[in-house]
Amino acid sequence: MNVWDLNLRHLSAFVETCHLGSLIAAAQSVSLSQPAVTQAIARLETQLEITLFTRRPGGMVPTDAARLLEPRVSRALSLIGSSRITSAQARAFIALARGGSYAEASALTGLAAATLHRSVTDLELAISRKLVERRGRGIELTRRGKEIARTLRLAHAELVAALEEIAHYRGEGESRVAVGAMPLSRAKLLPAAVIDFQNAHPQSEVSIAEGSFMELIEPLRDGELDLLIGALRSPSPGADIQQTPLFTDNPAFIGRKGHPLERAGKSIGLADLSRYPWVLPPRGVPLREQWQKVFEDEGIEIPQIPVESGSAMVIRQLLMGTDSLTVLSPDQVAVELEAGWVSILGQPSKKLTRTIGIFTRTDWHPTTIQSEFIALLHQRAPESGH
């Protein structure tokens, strides 16, 4: 089911009943009548296909399912932050923020543009803030609008996790893991963990978004991704992001098979390497910065970098067709090395290393299935560098 099919006021009534143990007290807390709270809980039980409370002389006692559900619902409601916001408004605004126009939001949700426009207008009235400004045929979120969009996305992620936990509790469904994959993780680590995960949970889904750190970090912050895998950053991206190391990677200098340096048949030094053009990731990527420091520390002029790319496929083709060099983990070109298309021309000093790990939101609470996926990543991580 779509999480926005759940009534947020019904969820509030459920949470207060859990906390207070009384329908009367819960009704007073959420400004509803006792019959309305009773109906709200009954409606939730029907939608979720579970029993949430046991009626006893001392009051309403949450079931195990309710105890599983309550923390996530509480976090979602706390993120939403206002009892005046409805599910329809939240759904419309998230779609508008993602689509950039009411037409695109309509395509994403299947709802009429006029319906979405009315919901967003009602949301602005509910919180007494301007969230959207028109820009030609499109729209632009105000600063407050961007903040609200993020908190609503995070609330949505919590509610999705809540439904997945309940489905898992009933034994009728599995979970979904959304992973952001930076280049090195796509070589061996992530595929191996995904295979293990599919074998253990054949009904679960793994969604993999590929990209650079800058492309993936905001979707992680928005709750659209559960975790990122790649080279850890120093300094940290911020207090809202937690970095967990997996292993240390030792990249190598790589060129095509039959490269002039390889044919020279002598020990290859940095001065030799500096005479050739390089294909490297853009500035700001840790590997690029460390590569440059290796040459600077030896007082050697930085080589030319006519092409910048973080794609192992693009780099491979450029290496094979030119005398260009690159620095990559051998894992990223394992197939090319085995096929004899490229060669390792040198092993940098220990200064050129990078820690590969996992990025998560500091306040993220993984589901049972998501925790198992992370455990598999740790199991598949090599014990030492290459």
How many β-strand stretches?
14
Separate helix tally = 16
**CATH topology of the largest domain, what is it called?**
Arc Repressor Mutant, subunit A
Helix share bin: 40-55%
Mean pLDDT: 92
Largest beta sheet: strand ordering: 6-5-7-14-8
CATH superfamily of the largest domain: Winged helix-like DNA-binding domain superfamily/Winged helix DNA-binding domain
Radius of gyration: 26 Å
Query: Which structural class do the helices and strands define?
Result: alpha/beta
Could you outline the blueprint of secondary structure elements for this entry?
Blueprint (H helix, E strand, L loop, with lengths): L7 H13 L2 H8 L3 H15 L4 E4 L2 E4 L1 H17 L6 H13 L2 H8 L3 H15 L4 E4 L2 E4 L1 H28 L5 E6 L7 H12 L4 E6 L2 H10 L4 E5 L9 E9 L2 E5 L3 H4 L6 H4 L5 E2 L5 H12 L9 E2 L3 H10 L4 E3 L5 H6 L2 E5 L7 E8 L6 H13 L6
Parallel strand pairs: 5-6, 5-7, 10-11
Antiparallel strand pairs: 1-2, 3-4, 7-14, 8-14, 9-12, 9-13
Helix pairs in contact: 1-2, 1-3, 1-4, 2-3, 4-8, 5-6, 5-7, 5-8, 6-7, 9-16
